[in-house]
């Protein structure tokens, strides 16, 4: 059974960097056409895609977050990570990691349970 | 960016009702459309991918249709466990985008 689990602090100060890691079990991050993604959801609001990364290190990210995003992958530890710099209160959200699988099109078939990150001093 | 517009934003229905939710893309996305169900405090759960393919383990009362810009998620006979929020998502091009959600409530 594929499982993803986010880990990281629940509270980040304004203008600091939010760092989260997603550990994958039951699958290898080096697996075919899959990509590994971050998605967030502000309290009471909808879903926003942040970025994804392939095991090769190729990435794609949401331009709305401009140059604040860094995503990386560690195939030896079977995990991938998100750094979001210069955070503000608008970055307060539940952050999910998810697997992007491919069968004619990409879709998110496995998700982590979510990690609530609050930006506050 | 491709904008995804869901309607209605909320609806009230009874157990046993047939429910349909629509999703419109701002440009053609062929069949690169996925549907998710989300319950409070939980991660979204994939229901339908590629506009009409049922994810393994999802009950057959859920179905999806459409192509191009207009898509529909149908629940043929609403069950208690189906009261939740539903999101569409396009995977045609980045940035990947979600609809605003449809909250299905008990009448």
Quick summary of this structure?
Chain A is mostly beta strands and 121 residues long. Chain A has strands spanning 3-7, 11-12, 18-25, 35-41, 48-53, 59-61, 69-74, 79-84, 93-102, 106-111, 115-119.
Would you kindly provide a written description of the structure presented here, covering whatever features stand out?
The complex is a heterodimer of chains A (121) and B (107). Chain A is mainly beta. Chain A has strands at 3-7, 11-12, 18-25, 35-41, 48-53, 59-61, 69-74, 79-84, 93-102, 106-111, 115-119. In chain A, strands 2, 4, 5, 6, 9, 10 and 11 form a seven-stranded mixed beta sheet that branches. With 107 residues, chain B is mainly beta. Chain B has strands at residues 4-7, 10-13, 19-25, 33-38, 45-49, 53-54, 62-67, 70-75, 85-90, 97-98, 102-106. The A-B interface holds A 46-49, 52, 60, 62-64, 96, 98, 103-109, 111-114 and B 31-34, 36, 42-46, 49-50, 53, 55, 87, 89, 91-92, 94-101.
């Amino acid at each position: 059974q594929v499982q993803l689990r986010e880990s990281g602090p629940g509270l980040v100060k304004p203008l600091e960097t939010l760092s989260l890691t997603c550990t994958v079990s039951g699958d290898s991050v080096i697996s075919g056409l899959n990509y590994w993604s971050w998605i967030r959801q502000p309290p009471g609001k909808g879903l926003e895609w942040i970025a994804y990364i392939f095991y090769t290190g190729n990435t794609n990210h949401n331009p709305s977050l401009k140059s604040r995003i860094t995503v990386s992958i560690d195939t030896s530890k079977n995990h991938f990570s998100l750094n979001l710099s210069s955070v503000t209160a608008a970055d307060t959200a539940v952050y999910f990691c998810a697997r992007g699988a491919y069968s004619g099109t990409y879709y998110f078939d496995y998700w982590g349970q979510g990690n609530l990150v609050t930006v506050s001093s | 960016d491709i904008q995804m517009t869901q309607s209605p934003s909320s609806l009230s229905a009874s157990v046993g009702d047939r429910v349909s939710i629509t999703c419109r893309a701002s440009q053609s996305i062929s069949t690169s459309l996925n549907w998710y169900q989300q319950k409070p405090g939980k991660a979204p759960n994939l229901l339908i991918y590629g506009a009409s393919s049922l994810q393994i383990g999802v009950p057959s009362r859920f179905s999806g249709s459409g192509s191009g810009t207009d898509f529909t998620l149908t629940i043929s006979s609403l069950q208690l466990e189906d009261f939740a929020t539903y999101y569409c998502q396009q995977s045609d091009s980045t940035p990947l985008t979600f609809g605003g959600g449809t909250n299905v409530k008990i009448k």
